[in-house]
């Protein structure tokens, strides 16, 4: 067997200068420490999963593969317009002549008394019809600011809708601060520090029965004449984060209750982008994991031929009504569970995490 002299091996060894060796050792240690700190940082704060864009979502470090698969495999339920509402709209829109539409509206009758849904349909339809009859040029003109846009298009849809839930919800309009967001921003505030306000919203729906806790947030992303490219994207991020604060603020009231019950509670966001409206839903699905998804979308009508958009508008609003009613029922069940003070193995308080400071 051939023997190599020791000197030859020594000559071929790559000698790394001490300065480079220290540099590499420092960088490897630093990278490992940063990775560890990032893991700890992510594990401390809430994660928002956008179920509309699952392919681009990152799995939280504390979420198992099975749990992640269960979360992301949820399918969107399709919603249908109630048959009696569809028939009503079909009766009104047989012809696209404004006078004939008004005549059809006046002559519409049913053999049974109008339900809340029928009354809502008639009221909203009458509003758009009235505007297109009397001031079509003004109505189709794009609003220059958000307050005009809200008064002309959003309030006439939302105000009668909330009336369906008589004495259960209050609405506040304008550039107002979210108390849920403020609660998170001032969490563990040091003594003597000035309290911070919450993120601004264009409207808030709050629950009368639970100290005006927020349940619905409105974000109007600029009037249609002034719609910056990034504004609606930034508003969506702000709205999604605000809804996590809203949900946590509600769940704080019932943190000793079972997670299996509390996870059925949903909070809602309403965002506009030009004349396009989106209603989203947010819920907690695991420890520190909050999901948001689009419930439905619709476009606002600004011309007589756009009245067909009302099919999507009513389909969206009635789907929203069902989801909102279900959440209100869950709140009642949580109230009862809280009153009974039953001890549970998995309280929802163990699953709640806040968003990072902002």
Can you put this structure into words, describing what you see?
Strand 5 (267-273) and strand 6 form a beta hairpin. Helix 5 packs antiparallel against helix 6 (116-134) and helix 6 (116-134) packs antiparallel against helix 8. The chain starts with 5 loop residues before the first helix and ends in an 18-residue tail after the last helix. The longest helix is centred in the C-terminal third of the chain and has 31 residues, at 310-340. The protein contains twelve helices and seven strands. The radius of gyration is 27 Å and the shape is globular. Helix content is 47%, strand content 16%. The protein has helices at residues 6-12, 18-44, 65-72, 83-92, 98-107, 116-134, 136-140, 146-163, 179-185, 231-251, 259-262, 310-340; strands spanning 47-50, 169-177, 200-207, 213-220, 267-273, 276-286, 289-299. By secondary structure, the chain is of the alpha/beta class. This is SPX-domain-containing protein.
């Amino acid at each position: 067997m051939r023997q190599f002299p020791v000197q030859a091996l020594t000559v071929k060894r790559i000698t790394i200068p001490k300065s480079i060796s220290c540099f590499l050792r420092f960088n490897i240690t630093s990278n490992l420490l940063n990775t560890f700190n990032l893991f700890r940082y992510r594990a401390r704060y809430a994660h928002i999963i956008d179920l509309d864009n699952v392919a681009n979502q990152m799995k939280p470090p504390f979420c198992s593969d099975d749990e992640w698969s269960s979360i992301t495999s949820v399918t969107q339920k399709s919603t249908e317009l109630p048959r009696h509402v569809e028939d009503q709209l079909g009766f009104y829109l047989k012809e696209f002549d404004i006078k004939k539409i008004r005549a059809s509206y006046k002559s519409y009758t049913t053999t049974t008394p109008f339900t809340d849904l029928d009354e809502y349909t008639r009221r909203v339809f009458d509003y758009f019809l009235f505007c297109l009859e009397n001031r079509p040029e003004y109505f189709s003109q794009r609003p220059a600011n958000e307050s005009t846009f809200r008064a002309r298009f959003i309030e006439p849809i939302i105000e009668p809708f909330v009336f369906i839930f008589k004495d259960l919800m209050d609405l506040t309009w304008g550039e107002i601060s979210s108390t849920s967001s403020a609660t998170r921003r001032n969490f563990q505030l040091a003594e003597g520090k000035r309290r911070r306000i919450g993120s601004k919203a264009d409207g808030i729906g709050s629950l009368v029965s639970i100290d005006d806790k927020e349940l619905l947030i409105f974000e109007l992303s600029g009037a249609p004449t002034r719609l910056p490219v990034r504004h609606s994207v930034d508003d969506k991020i702000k709205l999604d984060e605000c809804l996590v604060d809203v949900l946590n603020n509600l769940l704080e009231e019932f943190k000793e209750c079972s997670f299996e019950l509390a996870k059925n509670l949903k909070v809602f966001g309403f965002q506009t982008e030009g004349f396009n409206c989106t209603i989203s839903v947010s819920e907690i699905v695991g420890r520190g994991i909050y999901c948001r998804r689009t419930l439905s979308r619709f476009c606002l009508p600004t011309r007589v031929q756009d009245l067909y958009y009302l099919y999507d508008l009513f389909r969206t609003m009635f789907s929203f009504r069902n989801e909102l009613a279900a959440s209100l029922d869950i709140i009642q069940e949580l109230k009862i569970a809280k009153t009974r003070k039953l001890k549970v193995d998995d309280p929802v308080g163990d699953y709640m995490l806040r968003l990072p400071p902002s």
